[in-house]
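Reopening this one. Same input as before:
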Amino acid sequence: MSKRKTTASESAESVLSTTEEVHFPRGGASELTPLEHREISNQVAKDLFSTKKSTSSDAEGPAKKKRKATKAKAKAKGTDDDTKAAKPRSTMEELTFKKMAVGGLVLGCVTQINELNVLVSLPCQLIGSVPITEVSGALTSMVELAAEEDDEDIELPSLSDLFFVGQWVHCRINQLEEIKGKKRIELSIKPSVVNANIAKVDVSQGMVLGATVESIEDHGYVMSVGINGFTAFCKHADAQTYIQRFNRDEPLIVGQYVQCVVKNVPGNKRSLQLSMDREEVGKAQVTDPYSTLTSVTAGQSITGMVQAASDRGLQVKVNGMYDFTINTAQLPHSDQNVADTYRVSTNVTFRTLFIDTQTDQKLLFGSLLPTILELPTPDDETPYLGARFPYGAFIDKVTITRVSNIGVTAVIDGVEGILGFIHIAQLADKAPTQLPKESGPFAIGTTHRARVLSYSPVDGLLSLTLKPSILNDKYLQYSDIVPGEMVEGTVEKFVSNGMLVKLSPRITGYVAMPFLSDVALTRPELKFKIGAKVRPRVLAVDHAQKKVILTLKKSLIQSDLPLLLDLASVTPKMATHGVIVSIKSNGCVISFYNNLTAFCPGNEMTEQALSVNLKNTFRVGQTVKVFVLSVDVENHKLLVSMIRDEAASDARRAGAEKKGKATEEKRFSAGDVVEATVDHVKTMQLVLKMANGVPGHVHITQAFKDFAAIKDAKQPLAKFEAGQKVKVKVLASHETKKSNYLVLTHKDRVGSYVDCTLNLAQPVRTLDKLKQLKVGDVTVGYVAEIRPEHMMVAVAPLVKGKVRKQHISVDPVVASHPGKHYAIGQAVQVKVLAVQANKKILDLAVHEENNAKDLSYPLTLAQVKRDDRVNGMITAIDSTRHSLTVQLYHGVSGRVHVTHLDDIYKENPSKAFHEKQVVQCRVLDVDASLKRIDLTLRPSLVNGAALPDGAQKPIASVDDIRNNDIVQAYVENVSQGGVFVTYGPRLQARVKIAQLSDDFVKDWKKLYKVGQLVTSKVLFVDSDLKRVEASLKQSVVTGKPAEKKKKKAAEEQIPDEESEDEPMDQGSDDEDDSDMDVDEEEDQDVENAADSDDEMVDAGDAASDDNSAEEDENDDDDDDSDVEPVAALPVGGKAFDWTGQSALLPEDSASESDDASDSDDDAVSDKKKKKKTKQIVEDRTAELNSTAPQSVGDFERLLVGSPNSSYLWINYMAYQLQLSEIEKARAIGERALKTINFREEQEKMNVWVALMNLENQFGSDASLDNVFKRALQFCEPKKVYLQLVKIYERTEKLEKAEDMWQQTAKRFSQSSKVWTLFAQYYLQQGNPDKARELLQRCLQSLPKHKHVKTIVKFAQLEFKHGEPERGRTIMEGVMNNSPKRVDLWNVYLDLEVKAGDHELTQRLFERVTSMKFSSKKMKFLFKKWLQFEKQHGSADDMEHVKQRTLAYVESLNA
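Same output, byte for byte:
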């Protein structure tokens, strides 16, 4: 009972959430049975019946006592009862296309199987399509793999092997659209999609589910049902009948879809036992109640109570909660009234047909049709009804039994269980306006002759037509027209090359110009009038192209000779008529029916063929009588004659046979050993003269027994010379047509040649060479062709193998230039790497005696092993980062990192390599999940050579380096946070801005470029976090102090470390919205906060840029930082990081360089130093140093003067953390919040952020959550949310960061900035798909006036972090809708300029300046264009812009 109560409670919530309670009575009897009422009333009665109380004496007897029955109330009650009975009839829903919604579940039946999709019949005579990618997860993976690999070797299972017509499927609607009256429904039958919302507790015995085969085991099939928490299994015994009857007695394959029934649910609720038996599926019924409406799926057999019955259908309540509608079309035919057949309060068992719980309408539809209840499937005994009644079939008698506003329903004579439906538009050629039931031609009981239009197995209906025009139409479809028959039509119109003839309202035939008449017509419109009746003969019918070719030639129409329709019916000596369609110099081509053609040689066209010009004697389109000379059905060849009668044909044939016998006497037989003379020697064969004058050939692969018999491998056939006598063995004799005659012109003029071998012991008949070879075999081959990427080697006369460039030689130098070391015809020993005889694939490698045993030849990713030595071919070179892509085999490639090109690092190391060069590598690492292979070209690793002097040792991981190591590296990236240098394929080090140079450099990004070789010193290594920090300062690397400049001594240091404690990823800063004029004040505030947060929360550096007002109050304190800044000292060996990052410099590295750790106050005094540099008169270094806070007392004295400075408070907290006084640091933060004036909102915000950073690193999740919730009460919530999510990002707590982003987006769904920052987070984490999904989500939440701005920001993110091409697509959509927004054009232009494609940017400037704007805006655009060409273009480009500008000015003055 506990489950029952839970079910009732959840069901009650579902009822309360329903938008329309159609059958809830107002004052009538309760709709629930007494048992259901007792179970539910304790939980929901007060809420559900607070305003509508039932007065039923059975259900609520005590409530009835409070009322006094009066006549007025009794009358009112009677009225209410009438209303109750009438209400369902007026509000009963009809299932139509417009009522369907995406996400709805529907039961369907397969009606057609195509190559890439399956057509499914749906209710309401609708048709849906299931693409091949929406059948099962396994099948989708195979399709995606085939698409990614672009490999024809991957064979996909045919959908015709996975489905059969008449198969029932459970579908989910993915897409609905109606374009020009055509309805398109895209479906998915994946169990993971269809069954995703089924609650685990609702899975019970008798539930019918769609399942797919996941794997095949010894005792059965592991099935996927898509229900979270369940696995499924079907025993072989439960699948046997299905396999025998519906799967051609073949075992199921992985990915195949089958409708199953839950046979048993074990007590552990973890696995299901399924059955595929169709009888069990049809009889299965769900008896347990559903706990939630979302668990109800289409195709379930359930029992409910009839609540209302009318001529529109039934209303049935299930579980006392869910209202199902069964339309009249889904009721079996009955002569009785619906209300009499299905009485109210009786139970009926029906099958769910359509379920929509995703939208507010909550539509639930069922069916009582026998075809749905029993789920019958066609087999040999009961064929598919659609095949019995195909399109166009006639039904002699149908009787109308039901009339509605949209059409009539009829029973079909002789067919039980299936009705016919005739739409009102198909009743007559002129559709009637009204359909009376009792009178008229379509009244109930009238009988008619009908024609089938379609069959809908879900509706159990044949769609029929009664239109006289269609009933009398002989040709309803193209298959009704037979080539060679006479047809009647009407001249419709003339086209350029012929005439169109209307054969039926749906079919039009074509008569080509030569086939209009036996004589050439110059003006055919004079003979054939538009609308005139004609009687042509059908020449051909193309069903695929829907074309009918006709002829009006009387010679063909009146011919009494047999018609040539196909080669199988043609026999020699047959006479027929044909039409000349082409004339050649040696004969002509003659066309017959059904696109059958024949060739007639010139000497068979006329007796004087040598003395006349065939083109002048005959004409195209001429009808001729021909006699069949010969027919070759296998090769589709037909030879005819215009002058030969039957006797002449026999005499010719006898002469040919006699000549053939004479020739056979001279032929050699296979296996004969004869002596022949070498006529001449070619590169790949010997040409022989046989004794009978017939030429012979000896292929080079048949000239030697083995490789040892070859004396000169470069020129194996050089030992033979013309005139030399050799003994050969005949292998085969072949006939060939002589090259100076066409095949059909002189069939008797044939030549022959003999295939021979010099190996007399070779058997005549041998197996195919490909079938003989096995992987690992070594055989003799001969170079047949040398190409840039591979070499073809012949191993048999008709078998050639491919030797890829990297497999040509062990020596990469030889393999890189095969043309210098190999010649055509050269003999080589080759090793078989891969062979597939059925696909004619043979991969070889040149086998050399000095081949090192450890050289591997991997053909797949799985065969690549760590430390393997392999040869590869360079296919791509990254000239920026100097990395190489090396192909090991087709589809298997690895990467050579810049640090593994050589043992000695050089500037621009990739210059030494070129594409298609072969190199020898060693495998460093293989990541099968990422399909990544790391290779090395270092001689010390490839060949085991010693490291030369000056070489940099290889660095594989963070364990290979130590503090203070001097390491050569290449610049990997230059970002806002500093420079990243790479030490190896998987290891990078970060160089902070302060560690880039000893000198002050205003634009420090220009100091280094990607790919530059640098020398660095390791400052800090964190093995746990795999982080490394280094310095590029010469003073740090060499250990020598830098030479100080006399001028600007106070600015020798890099002035700003804005991102000193940012995380070590290579992402850029938050998106810069300054190039958009559409940003709002709200988003600008958030951006300013976000841009300053990284600086504010640095250790000892918080609130550096947001407190310029406090800087003026503490000039003396700020000046201290110029000489000896006060930094946060280490706590327990490491410095406290207010950004949540723990990888800071160790204490012992501070002496290496003052700039490495003591730049805490630089950001505070940066702006002031720039302003006051010229005003410095005397050196106050000693005084400032002495006044820096060194104790608690110092901080307290400073806070007395500046109690509102968050900078001082945060440094005070850092000082306590240096002493490991975490509680005191917390207390100082709380004290700061109480002390700082309430008007200083930003100062308080800085302290809150510092406290959150403290709790994130030293506290617990609970303490952090407490600080976070308190901060929300005193600060702007959005800023607090953004700060916390940034803290999680910086500390790489990515799961918490994503969860916080979800909460932030949900709470601030009206903020464009939140959505764009969320998308940026996903892009930076490598999840572009999730980022793009946010665009659709945010547009549903944001106000419309923010849509354009948000879309543009997403485009900017695509340009910066995603795919620029996708960004262009987004911007193009925006500009199409807002073509007059110059500010948006400006953003688009800036994005293209930053993208760096000069040609695309030029075209965009051309496009923008061609539009009409005000002169002021045009001036701005031309000026911007000219500035762009000055920086990135040539002088000609600048001149072009100036000419465009002048042309525009002249157009204004014109």
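So the earlier flakiness isn't reproducible anymore. For the record, The mean pLDDT is 78.
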